[in-house]
Amino acid sequence: xxxxxxxxxxxxxxxxxxxxHLIEKRSVSDICEEYHLNVNxxxxxxxxxxxxxxxxxxxxxxxxxxxxxxxxxxxxxxVSDRDEGIAELMMEHVKLKKKLGLS
Length: 103
Hints:
The protein is mainly α. It is built from 4 helices and no strands. Helix 1 packs across helix 3 (about 40-50).
């Protein structure tokens, strides 16, 4: 029994092959022959590509939103730390004034 050589294509390679067909107008049979790929596999990848294409546009928005949320949280932490520092300084100021009899 002979062993079949399986080739695993990366996501980038799959998109590149689909691009050859859609943008460069190469025939599916030529692409499949050149890259030793089953035609049905190519069409499966193409179907997945079109079904999941919308995710390519929503991922960036999600990442930007997560990044913005993290920035907001970091700024809130800084403000909170600053407010705590000011409160401590004010308490020390009041204690010092009382100690010196200036209040």
